[in-house]
C-alpha cells in the first residue's frame, strides 16, 4: 500500500515565508483520486497535479490571525526538525510561519535526559526560533504527575500504586537511571521528587553488588550520594532516557524486582511459587518500573539507526524471561510515543497552550467578550514524525476524549527509510519529504489561506 506522497520540495518552496516577507507564496496541490481506510485512518492515494495557490495575506510579524485555526501541529524533533544538532532544511522557516500566523503547535519528543528548560533553550538557539517550555513535552515530562498522585486505575495498562498503597511518590525513595543518572536525579528533584537514588549511590555503598570494572566504580563515586539507609526500600524505578551502563543498571533493577518489599539486598520468598498469582513474581511489594519510551532505534550521526531505550527494555525483559522461565512477563509501565498516556498528556498541554495563545491575541471590550473570544474546539492535530513505530502508530491509535482527530504525517528525513525498511508498518495519513512539506500538505487540506 502506498500513502499519499507530496510533490517534490522544489514545487513548494514558497509557502513557508520568512518573517516580514510580503512575497506571494506558491505551493503544490495534490488531488486525491481514491481513499482507503487503513489503521483507522484515511490514507490518500493520488497523482501529482501542481497548482498555484495564493496564500499571501500581508501579515506582519506579531499580528494576530484573522480567525482562530481549528487545527494544530505536534512535531517530533530528531529527524523532523533537527538531525543531531543541525536544523533540517526548512524547519526554522516552518516554525516561524506557524508562529507568525498564530497556528498552535507543540514539540512532542521521545528524547530526554535534560530538564525541559535546558532543552528548550538549546532548541531555540539551534533552530533560531523562540520556543517555550509551555508547549514542549519530552519523554519523561509526564512523570511529574507521579509526584503527588498514582497511576493506578484500570485504564492505566496494569500500572499500580506505591507498595504501601499511597498515592504520589514525592516522599518515597525512587531509583533513577538514564544516559547521565546524576543529571536525571536533578531533573527528578526539580519535578518534586525528594528522595532520588541512582545506581552510582548503590554501587558506591555496596561495591560487591557489581564485581566488575573497578574504573567504573571510580567514575561513579564522583557523582554518588550517601544512601538514606544502608539497604533502602525503593518504591519506584524510573528509566528517564537511554541508559549508558546497561550491565550495572540491569543488575540493580533486577535485584529490586526480585526483592522482598523493594528492600535492597533481599529476595522475596514468593518468587517462583505456583500457589501465588503470577507465580509469585512481582507479587511482594516490589517497586513499580517505569520507562519513558520504547523506541528500539533512533537516528544519530552514524548512517544506520542506533539502539534506543526500547532496546534496553527488551534486553532487560529478555533476562527476566530467563529468570522466570517464561512464566511471568516483567510488569512495567511504558510511556512516550506511541502510548495513549503521552498523547493524552500532550493534548492537554496543547489545549492549554492554544487557549493562551489565541485568547491573548484577541481583544474585545463587549460584555460577552470572554465567550466570543474563546477559540473554537480543536478539530485536528497533525502529528509530524519520522518513526512509524512511535509517531505514526501513536497518532493513528490515539482516541481523544475531546473528540480531536489526530492525523499522522511521516517525513523522509529521519529514522524511516523506504529502501531499507519498505512500506511503513503503520500507515500514515500522508508521506511527505520533510517538515515543510508536512505543514504545506496540512494547510492545503485545511483550506488555510
Automatic annotation (TrEMBL):
Biological process according to GO: glycerophospholipid biosynthetic process
PANTHER family membership: CDP-DIACYLGLYCEROL--GLYCEROL-3-PHOSPHATE 3-PHOSPHATIDYLTRANSFERASE-RELATED, SUPERFAMILY HYDROLASE, PUTATIVE (AFU_ORTHOLOGUE AFUA_2G02580)-RELATED
Lineage: Eukaryota, Fungi, Dikarya, Ascomycota, Pezizomycotina
A GO CC annotation given for this chain: mitochondrion
Annotated spans, Disordered: 365-386
Protein name: HAD-superfamily subfamily IIA hydrolase
InterPro entries the record matches: CDP-alcohol_PTase-I, HAD-like_sf, HAD-SF_hydro_IIA, HAD-SF_hydro_IIA_CECR5, HAD_sf
